[in-house]
Fold each of these.
Amino acid sequence: MVETFAALAEPNRFRIVELLLRSGARSVNEIGERLELNQPQVSKHLRVLKEAGLVDVEARARQRVYELRGKQLRQLHDWLERYRKVWDARFDALDELLEELEHGERKRDKLTHGKLTHDQKEKSHDRKK
Amino acid sequence: MTGRNDSVHGPKTGTEVERASERELILRRTFRARPRTVFDAMTKPELLKRWWAPRSLGVVLISCEADVRVGGSYRWVFGRPGETPMAFSGVYKEVVPGARLVYTQIFEPMPATGEGLITAVFEEVEGGTRLTQSELYPSKEVLDGAIASGMERGMRETLEQLEALLPDLEKAA
């Protein structure tokens, strides 16, 4: 887990992960062509990604292909999703409060500007209760 | 590589979370209220109490003190009923009502994890306020640790659910 983010923090490595995510298993040469990187660069990045547990390598025919290892990415995504839900619940509660605050303030503005009749004032007062 | 990291979006209300760097999380949300109102709701204790611990989270905000000025401190005590309360505390670094709020944050049960820095920016947009809240963790290890412990908790919950299911499965077998 600790290594996942360092591995993804390098833009080209992130692009490699994105490419593997979109298009499945790819060889070093294919990755290099698609992202316009030379082969030693790609190999170096793939080594870091492999050490971080983000990709797996497999021998296929005469070449080695690299593929995303889903687990670590899923863990990160799941955690972010839980974190998002906590804040979403808070912000939903905040939304309700804000509506009440804004609504209440508009009512007060109207009252201070004397635009409401006595009857309307009574009604608005009743609603607040 | 801002904006390109893993991020998740809510389908309905649109709270977005993004791990913007190895030690920073960014939350974004739009509210249908003026920046000043959102700012007040996030700083005034009597208002904070009404939203920060919604019932669905299962925790309650027990007390909430905030001296909202540069150098002023705050302390929010929260917990689950029947359990030992926990607290977040810190100091306000920048206070620009309706626009910007920067404060430090320590999770008191785990002082060794150090001090985080929270920056909330309130931006007026059509029909409301766009909030961008950055949480800068003291180090990459602390954020990784938070994620790892969250994982463990998630796993434990899953196991507990599985355990609860087992008797039924046994019966069915």
Amino acid sequence: MINEILNSITFIYPELAVSIFLLIIVLVDLVFHKDKKYIPYISLAGLVITGILVLNQIGITHFAFVPQLSAVKKYGMMTIDPFGSYFKLLVVVTSILIIFFTIASEEVIDLKERLGEFHALIYGMILGMLVMISASDLILIYLSLELLSLSSYVLAGFLKLRERSSEASLKYVIYGSVSSGLMLFGISIIYGLTGSTNLYVINSLIQGPQINLFTLSFSSILMFVGIGYKISAAPFHFWTPDVYEGAPISITAYLSVASKAAGFALLIRFIQTGFTSFISEDGYWTLIAVFDWQALLIAISILTMTLGNFSALWQDNLKRMLAYSSIAHAGYILLGIAVLSNQGLIAVLIYFFVYMLMNIGAFYVVMLISNKTGSENIDDYDGLGAKAPFLGVALAIFLISLTGLPPTAGFIAKLYLFIALIDANMIVVAIIALLNTVVSLYYYVRVLKHMYLTKSEREQENITPSIGSLVYLLVLLIPILFFGIYFTPIVEFARSCVSLLGI
Amino acid sequence: MNTIPMEYYLLISAFMFSVGVTGVLIRRNAIVVFMCIELMLNSANLALVTFSSFLGDPAGQVFVFFVMTVAAAEAAVGLAIIIAIFRNKLTVNIDEINIFKW
Amino acid sequence: MENSQILTYLLFTPIIGAVIILFMKESQTVLIKIFGLLISLFAFAVSLYPYFNFDYTNPDFQFIHKVLWIESLDISYHVGADGISVLLILLTTFITPITLLSSWKAIDKKIKLFTMMMLLLEAGMIGVFMALDVFLFYIFWEAMLIPMYFIIGIWGGEQRIYASVKFFIYTMLGSLLMLVAIIWLTVAASKNIGLYTTNLILLYQQAPNIMLDIQKWLFLAFFFSFAIKVPLFPLHTWLPDAHVQAPTAGSVILAGVLLKMGTYGLIRFNLPLFPQSTVEFAPFISILAIIGIIYGALVAMVQTDMKKLVAYSSVSHLGFVVLGIFALTFESVQGAVIQMVNHGLSTGALFLLVGIIYERTHKREIAYYGGIAKLVPLFAIALMFASLSSIGLPGLNGFIGEFLILLGAFQSQVLDSWWYVVFAATGVIFAAVYLLWMYQRVVFGTVTNEKLNTELTDLNAREIIVLVPIFIFIVWIGIYPTTFLDLSEAPVSAILEHVKNYTFNFLY
């Protein structure tokens, strides 16, 4: 047993590194009261190390923390596989980008005193996400989800003097606790039905005939509520716009990318490990006939993207608009899972990578502008194209990419999603997704319209971004344009990371 | 020992869960809402312990310890946020916390 | 199929020009204008090379340049041209310098951006006409949207923002539908050949073997997206807004080239890829085209705004082109191809003339004018010439196209009824009515509006230089169309032969 644990530890180096740096940050925060400006760099260093450790893991497949009992079929508490490593890498890269984001964000700079807490909480989130991505045991899933949630509740309300921020936080905590409560109840029922908390065991047990299908479907739906809340799928999305608008903008960007990515990774693992009986040669998953996951996922994803897109139409606050747009994107990504095939999974992986670049980019520009003007209202973007040419062009490219027009990477993401959908003969769904894209076009173009076509009534000074911001934006823009034109590398990388361990 | 059948435990657990969900939906005081959430978690705990005992598998009871820890942490975070809100608005009534369309 | 990179050079000429302009100073407006004009003239010169080296007897694509791009989906940068493409590429490179020269004075703000946008637009249009890879085609198709959006939105008239957004949403709807169709086509064809390919020439062989049910939907998806661009009745409602609000240069490009992409798409994609469905749907589409012809003409008749009148006349004229394509006879398709060029020239000229007079008075209402023949005789002559060309007077270009289309439609076995021709022919009569009526109200009579005396001045040297080349071609096509018809002869008969092969048991 001890040997097994010691052996398993070698496979969770990234998680260990994050835990160690979490402690270091807390200690530094305690020891150096006065000068906290080094803390962001410590957390950057920690993330770089974590990133390297994750990179080392790519290609490895292994079960960690295997119980002694499992001599017949191998399974463990955690599963290390290329799919998980891809998402971990995504989370780490997002975190690095977000740390730079906070360095430039005035909202956070103002809180010099509490910088230590801020980074410690971000590390809490990262640890939660990394564990969640690998977790293949319901206990671990629940705990990591809670770790992620608890840290993000606090971060959402971090600007405690701002009424909006604390209100957002309260909503987040109530919705979050309720949905995790529902999820926990679902877990308890699944445990009662199968007598195990491990997804692999559950998979082999529910294939038997003696399982009560109604109870199992009910508990699966309760599980889905918990995950659906994390990925802000409709109808569990109500918290999203409020929290995204009220939270500090760097945290908004972080929640919209990283915690969503972890949620999706969990959902994919839950469905594939827990409910798939076999994968055909051309990559289609056959689910155990418990209940129709595909119909549920399709219905939810269409609902999500339609609600997200139509609500975004009427938003005047850019942060809130981007929140609704991120709900809509969750709908598209969910569609990639609903295909239930490896091709859909490739599309999801590509989509997330691209989504990370463009969404963080859009939020970053919004942040830079609100640093200067103090406003996120769309009317304050009038004539921005002339006043801040670079920021204008950058935001335009991010928005065009979010719409999914060539030659940006957003187009590639949509392209592969559509290929997966059509290959599975889901033409009607593809058409619905397409009509949604046209709707989304309207509100993205509305921003372009304000930036370039409307003249500003007020005099504003020119906004020139600092060198650091310029580099940051270029780091996001260049891959968006490059992968928009030549996308073989990202597609091949996603293809190599598509395999999940098990089944 | 097993004189009380499993269904009784589960019925109580389901009842507690329903009370919790209903409370979350209809109560307007943020602190009461949190109490109801605690009720939901505890109903799940009860179910876990029941199953664990009847299946003879310790994992469920271990899980309950974790859940209790999480519940404590959640309550701590939730109360802290409620205090922050109270400082700003001098109320903990959810209906009055409505800058965003609730 | 000799390998040649001439088309790539042609494609990149305006792009490189735009990049160079990016690094010029905003204040050097004259230099930017001259440089933009020179680049577009140079592109025209380059586009003459494929014309003079064209092999008339070869129906295949020529000047092919192919570079593999994305291996896993067999997407490649694959360009080439047949006679139809060469004709439309020439039209593009011919119209672009004219529009740049025509907006010399009319565009007075953000000249740098304007010139760049025009050059990028030109590159996009050239790209569409020579792409031999469906994916590449889609990229160029989309890439043109953004420059056009800005051209209408920044330099347009009073309601430019509304018009530009409407234009954008409409065309996006069409093009996204096309994207789904392209993916579906690729996926469906891969079931036969076992691997994905977006190579158009391969798809020509594979697509007709796809199950007929799927083909029908594919045909409709492609048709719908092209029909929005054409625009075919009842999808035309974006056109009047976009035309009226766009600056003159934008209107000319829009009428002259952009609309042709729709009809070009029909010939290049719908006919050869889905021959069975083409034959099946031809009567319905022809009816829509005829409704468009008559509707466009009738609405044009009651317009009080000159630019709107010309815009609706486009709806009517392009109805002819669509009718010609779906009559599926050699004469009619040839007529449709030449009519695409004709419409570009004559409607382009009309928009230029409306723009010229608008520059002076800032009024487009017909009622504002009257009796300007004495004030601006040269302008009156030019407007007469352009109107007659648009009406289809024998001896000018419009006649050739419309005559061939009607002749072909009359013989068509697919349509198989002469009622089509009867109704379509009324469109010609209506065209004469609305254009000549407009001409009479604007040009003849006595000067009723005193302001005109001071405002109006006759055409200046620049404007004459802009108009004369168009008029030369209008007469050339009218008198000796063989020069142009010869170009498209081989590919048109090859496409029709292809359609015939697959639909033999159907109707022929």
